[in-house]
Each structure stands twice: as C-alpha cells, then as structure tokens.
Write a structure and sequence with these properties.
The chain has 6 helices and 5 strands; from the N terminus they run H-H-E-H-E-H-E-E-H-E-H. The protein has 187 residues and is α+β, with helices and mostly antiparallel strands. Strands 1, 2, 3, 4 and 5 form a 5-stranded antiparallel sheet that branches. Helix 2 packs antiparallel against helix 4 and helix 3 packs antiparallel against helix 5.
C-alpha cells in the first residue's frame, strides 16, 4: 500500500481541528485597522489562492495586489456594494482568463484566501463586480484586458477588534442535510 502524506499505509489520517475552527470562526469584516499587511502574509494569501482546485486544473486566475491609497479610494467609489475597499490596507482583485467555470473556480480560490487570511488575523468581505459599468471601470483602473473576466475584489486588513467567534446564525443541520434522497433527514 502507498503512503499518504508521509504516513504508513493503513494508518488513520489525523484531521486538523485548526482548519475546522478557522472555518467555524471566520466572519465577514468590512472595517480594518490601518496597519499595513506584511508582504509575507500577502504571499501566503496568494499561495492559498494558487493552490485552490480549478476545473480541469486550468488554474485560470490572476491576482492583482493593490496597495496604492489613491487607487483604493477610486475602487471604493466605484464598487457600490463595497465602498469599504477604500479603507483596506490591501485589496486583491481576482480575474479569470479562459475559465470554463469562472465563478466556481474564483470562488474556490477566494474561499481559501479568506481562510488563510483569517488564520493570519486578517478580515475580508468579497466585493462582487457583477454590475457591468462598475466592472468595466475597475478593469480600466487596474489595466485588465477586455478578454479577462474580473470577478471580485478582496479587501484585506487586520480586524479592528476580536470579533465573536461562535454563534453565527445558521439553519439547523436537520433542515438542510438530507440522506440518500431529498427530504430524508440526515441521521
């Protein structure tokens, strides 16, 4: 038998509760401290996006790191659903090139970036750019070619205070999880 992740064949894999805790605790953050985000942290966030799975392993993403205050203010004025990008120390734009499933693949990269950022003490709230006029203007500011699809802006910054880490309102598992067929409660 082959070894999985350096473990002898047949040995049970240990699941890290740190990842589970990060998923459970992550919250949407729209206010940021002005502290700069170190380059090493930005690189870890970018690598998390790069390591995301993609349809047919196309890896169609481009990540544009923006720190210029004037550019961030301009983006904040354009992005109606995310004026808070103007106050973030750093924003990463996610653009997709020749993607079979751009929203799905961008979402996978985005989620991994969010989780790594959270584990580093950062917060974020993705800003959708589905309004054509806003998307076009942001692409112009960032120099994104017309054939590249701009999906979202991810503003990152240190959280202003420790947000609550438990008790997010979620539907009970019994109302959303089914077993074998829809309507059959998951046991």
């Amino acid at each position: 038998m082959a070894s999985i992740m350096g473990r002898p064949a047949g040995q049970q894999e240990h699941v890290s509760m740190e990842v589970y805790e990060c998923v459970r605790a992550r919250r949407t953050i729209r206010r940021f401290r002005p502290d700069p985000v170190p380059e090493a942290v930005i690189t870890r966030v970018l690598r998390a996006g790069r390591w995301a799975p993609s349809s047919r392993n196309q890896q169609p993403w481009h990540f544009i790191v923006i720190r210029d205050r004037d550019t961030l203010k301009s983006l904040g004025k354009i992005a109606a659903s995310g004026p808070f990008v103007a106050d973030a120390p750093v924003v990463i734009a996610i653009a997709m090139e020749n993607a079979d499933r751009p929203d799905l693949d961008a979402g996978r990269a985005l989620q991994q970036m969010e989780l790594v950022a959270w584990s580093e003490g950062l917060g974020t709230c993705f800003v959708n750019l589905s309004v054509e006029e806003q998307n076009r203007k942001v692409k112009g500011i960032l120099g994104i070619p017309a054939e590249i699809e701009l999906i979202a802006l991810l503003p990152f910054g240190y959280r202003p205070k420790s947000p609550r880490t438990g008790g997010k309102h979620r539907k009970p598992l019994a109302t959303i999880a089914h077993e074998e067929t829809f309507g059959q409660p998951y046991s």
